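#lab-general

N.A. 3:47 PM
ok so I finally got the sequence cleaned up, no stray characters, all 88 residues accounted for. can someone with queue access submit it? mine expired

B.Y. 3:52 PM
send it over

N.A. 3:53 PM
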Amino acid sequence: MTDFGLFAERDIARANQKLDQLKRHAERRDRFIDALDLDALDAKTAFAILQEDDDLAENIAFGELYIHHIATLETQRAEIAASIPLAA
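B.Y. 4:20 PM
back already:
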């Protein structure tokens, strides 16, 4: 899978910014690919284009979940720490 750098971010604002950039890139890319004649391309190139489309779609779909995860991570950590009995 292509690494678009989204899942390396721990800062919510930066992760949101990267996700928005990915969405804009995917929209522009879709318009460009719609103008291409994929049948005129060799099989390897067409496969690479379709594979990157899948990678982009996956990153965008999981990006929303990831941003929610990092937004709630601190709360989850605090809840876990509070539920662990302290050693005497």
